[in-house]
């Protein structure tokens, strides 16, 4: 409600934004580079705080929501999603600690990554820190699969498919 944010006093990034995002609805923000899309994501995720106005989730001010509880309900996939050193299974179970192999593979199938994983050691495939042994598109697919496994109430995608080919982007 009436959201205002600026990185500096002389150049506001968001001015007077009123927005409602309804459950079970796709909401897309489209605009030129630098128009404030990622800034809005940063505000929604609590990485930055609005100078004025408030962000409400289910009627509750976001500033009053416990961060752990919030992150259990919201999943962010961005162009810079992180891959941790360890197995692919370990990277996936960060989203859902008790996930079965079947659940993990179902999410990998949805993002067209399952076959690659099967051909490269399965869920025990070793991943290097920052995913340096994966392509940019594979990192983003992995991040998307991890988000799907999380089964969040709200998904926020910020250029989440920028490194993925057009065919796969239609997932």
UniProtKB/TrEMBL annotation:
GO terms for molecular function: ATP binding; ATP hydrolysis activity; ATPase-coupled lipid transmembrane transporter activity. Residues 16-162 form the ABC transporter domain. It comes from the Bacteria. It comes from Haemophilus influenzae HK1212. InterPro entries: ABC_transporter-like_ATP-bd, ABC_transporter-like_CS, P-loop_NTPase, Type_1_exporter. Keywords: ATP-binding, Cell membrane, Membrane, Nucleotide-binding. PROSITE patterns: ABC_TRANSPORTER_1. This is ABC transporter domain-containing protein.
